[in-house]
Prior knowledge:
The chain is an alpha+beta fold. The chain is built from 14 helices and 27 strands.
Amino acid sequence: MTDSDRPVPGDHRDLVVNDDEIRLPSGLDLDRTYDVLLNGDHVWSFHARRDTESLLGHLTVRWPRGLRRHLVGRADVVLRDHAEKRVEAMGHHVFKGDASRTVSVRDSDGNAQILDKYGRLTRPLSSEAPDSVASFLDEIEQLLTTLSDTAGRPAFICYGTLLGAARSGELIGHDNDVDIAYLSDQVYPVDVIRESYRIERILRDGGWTVRRGSGSRVNVRIEQSDGSVRFVDVFTAHWVGDRLYMPSDTGFVLARESILPLTSVTLHGRAMPAPAAYEELLALTYGSSWRTPDPSFKYETPRWLDRRLNGWFGGLRTYRKYWDAFYGRNGRTLPTTPTDFARWVDAEFPSQLPLVDLGAGNCRDARWFAKRRRSEVLAIDYTTGGMKLRPRPGKRVTRQVMNLNDIRHIMSLGVRLSRSDEPSDLYARFLLHSLDADGRANVMRLASMSLRRGGLLFLEFRTTADRRRHHVFQTKKREFLDPDDVARQVEEAGGTIVHRSAGLGLATFGDENPHVCRLVAKWSDQESRGA
């Protein structure tokens, strides 16, 4: 906790807490934001009017879902006014009745975490040492320079980063990333998208790690000196008519003179580029009270704007936050040895063809196949977290961030594989049941495009018989598939099943013994390898 984050002592009331909720003291100002501290750590903020409910005559606020797995053990609970840091009430509670433990909302390295506006636990910027912040800002300046000088587009800080600079000259402590934008001069959304892909290629060529969030938004991943990772959202600002859009949350009637020529604001002692009338932009984005800090702020994107932006640019982030959080929470404890499915594929269908590992996770199987003399292995996953947690794969393994729910990504990969010097095998273990229907259809489309010259599709997935069995990881991002339906989908896409088996004992993990199906299919008339 920083000095500026410490509660201000004063008279306070008793706080009633249980496992499900906090009962708020009477007389609170409903138009203010309040912080919740657990054992001295600020873990969550809420707006009293928006986030509370009346229950049996008392105003209550429920513990957020993102915190609940940490709520086991003893905790001193403090409720304070966010703006004034004044303690309003204090209480003590033993969560889950387990007095042998102490509640701690920290990551595996002991760093404090806080709920962001999306309900995710993140490491706040306030936890960074000054030299780490300085190093991070060095990278931000280089990124802005790449956008302005190499890509040729005016670039500036925006959203929460601009808000912090305008308020205090510093990054907002409870934020966990940095927001920047470049100004496009394209007048049609399709051309905005084309330019965004051009700029993505420039960033990748410049050595930046980039993944796409929509047709007009990318995210840059920056590794810190301690191995942790910070993210920079890069938005495209553009006019259509007299309205300035900065997807995915804003679209205002705004004069061009409000943005250009760019001015500058001070951020941690550095001059950073900013819109000409940045205070006007902040007022439109956050309301007239934008100068008052509010960590509970949530965008309320109008329905017309949400539909318009999704229609123009789509959204390519489906489930990404879930998988980022999954690997952030569990990645270091996941096995690194090859799966039984990888060993089975290698034994029953030996090959030296290139292999594409779809949904590679932490690359455990990709590395195994590379060691088994595969000429080349391409490891593809939506989240960089899993692939980044482990040591870098061998020289024959290439990693690529790709969204299998995005038809554009699939078409691009399919064309590339269909034109390669030799066909590749496609390998997808525990992928199909983690995708929605469109994602599964995309896998079949990819196989149809890339395997007609040869190569096989290897699938292992959870079946409907696994639905009620014990699972180590409880998740809603999982479907249980009927093998007949998957086989039919393969055949409708032009494939032929060359192997099918299902049962227990094929994919054990700890005390979990799931019921899975293995399918192998071909799209070529060439004689199949192996069993």
